[in-house]
């Protein structure tokens, strides 16, 4: 991963997992647990953890409703279940986005952030959520998108619990 090494940046994503994804347990890039992506960005590892931690503090867990399905990605090849607009979820996204930008992180797809944020849960083969499901997003995780430089794997490196703001580190 030449770009990360050259600039000291590393790929991360902040997510709210719907399925369990313990800190320190890696998974393949095509085998994500169900989740809502809050922000995808590049940043130095310690700065990423500090930015997300500082953005979260103590937060109330968003309680969201699953909406209709949509097709995302190149030529609409990625099936997703949209999450209905929710002010608490939007606030989490905005807080992380502002903190990462202020700390010099490079945000991926800025057109899909802020007012363009469309929270969703990607359908994973037979695993999916259903329209009308109510989900409580009780924590936010920081996921390393290329642990040890290997982009075939994903690794949750920290998790912050709602209400307590306590971090679980791997």
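-> sequence recovered:
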């Amino acid at each position: 991963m030449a770009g990360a090494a050259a600039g000291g940046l590393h790929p991360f994503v902040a997510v709210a997992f719907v399925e369990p994804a313990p800190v320190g347990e890696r998974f393949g890039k095509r085998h994500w647990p169900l989740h809502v992506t809050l922000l995808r960005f590049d940043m130095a590892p310690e700065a990423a953890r500090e930015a997300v931690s500082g953005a979260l503090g103590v937060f109330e867990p968003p309680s969201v409703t699953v909406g209709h399905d949509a097709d995302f990605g190149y030529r609409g090849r990625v099936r997703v279940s949209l999450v209905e607009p929710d002010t608490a979820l939007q606030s989490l996204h905005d807080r992380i986005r502002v903190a990462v930008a202020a700390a010099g992180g490079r945000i991926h797809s800025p057109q899909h952030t802020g007012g363009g944020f469309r929270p969703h849960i990607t359908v994973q083969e037979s695993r999916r959520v259903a329209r009308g499901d109510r989900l409580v997003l009780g924590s936010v995780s920081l996921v390393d998108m290329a642990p040890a430089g290997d982009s075939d794997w994903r690794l949750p490196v920290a998790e912050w619990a709602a209400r307590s703001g306590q971090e679980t580190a791997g």
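The chain has a mean pLDDT of 92.
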